[in-house]
Write a structure and sequence with these properties.
This protein has about 325 residues and is an all-alpha fold. The protein has one domain (about 10-325). It is built from 15 helices and 2 strands. The chain has helices spanning about 15-40, 45-50, 55-85, 90-105, 110-125, 130-160, 170-190, 190-200, 205-215, 220-245, 250-265, 275-285, 290-310, 315, 320-325; strands at about 5, 10. A hairpin with a 2-residue loop joins strand 1 (about 5) and strand 2 (about 10). Helix 3 crosses helix 4 and helix 3 packs across helix 6. It is globular, with a radius of gyration of 21 Å. The chain starts with a strand and ends with a helix. Mean pLDDT is about 85; it is low at about 5-10 and about 320-328. Keywords: Cell membrane, Membrane, Transmembrane, Transmembrane helix. It comes from Rhizobium lentis. This is Flippase-like domain-containing protein. It is found in: Cell membrane.
Length: about 325
Amino acid sequence: MPLRRGSALVTPSSPRAWLRVAIPVLKVAVALGLVIWIARRVDFAEGWAAVRSLPVTTISVSIALLLLQALLSAWRWCLLTDMIGQRLKMIGAMKLFMESLFYNQALPSPIPGDAARIFGAINYGLTIKEATLGVVMDRILTLFGLAVVALIGLIIMRAFYGHAFPIPYLAELTALGVAGTVASAVVFSWRRRLFIRFLPEKLHALSDALATFLSHRRTMGIFLLTLVIHGVSVVTLEILVRGLGLPLDWGQAAAAFPPVLLIAMVPISVGGWGLREGGMIISLAVFGIGTTDAATLSVVFGLLQLVVGLAGGVFVLSRPHSGKIKAL
């Protein structure tokens, strides 16, 4: 039975409906395929022995760092909303950010997590425009900051250790992306009207928000905060390295881990699973770390992220709109 939405008919077999089902299924398939492919090359007995040897202190400190990362991310979100309009209160921002972590870990799409933040921010007094722009700006800044951190890691790997990252042209493509973004931001700040002419009317509000961000006195501070947020992931991984007894120092960690985190952000998997493990194996092989050790490190890191994300489920269960978000 076709459903009428406005003047258009939406049937269960419409391309949009198929895409909403096919994309998550494809992501799950990619994640499972990569995990199975990697699992066939891993010594499970050796990996499990390494996990069992992890000190409780290492696990506790790693979880604390991931919670600190969530706190810093929520703070940055507050600062961004303050630039756009009303400032979101820190307590509310932290609750909503933990909710989004839960959805991002439990579901094969980041959309419900972003929707949780938008709907929640509206309940805390922001307009829908302010809430949406705040989340979009936060996403853009997260991706750009990670690209910058990854580029720094790739430069360290090549300049200080004499190795190129095993994935061809990753350094060049990352550098091109960072340089292109910076150049676009400079031109946008200088000749914004040229951009507006080619932008749909729906994106004019985002254009205003970007202009406000680029000209704000806190811009550099927020960008540095973004680098710190990503740096916390590197520190957490190095602490796990020490706990597992792997021969990787801090300089090598700064070179090896950021590109892996960038690879895990490619939206073809669920929560980066499979992509992160494959990237970790490739990256750490440069420094003589074996497949089993690299995969074990990545899985432990992913599981700790999952623990922190599932902790956000406590806030989800108490929110009246959670059912609507799950349906997205």
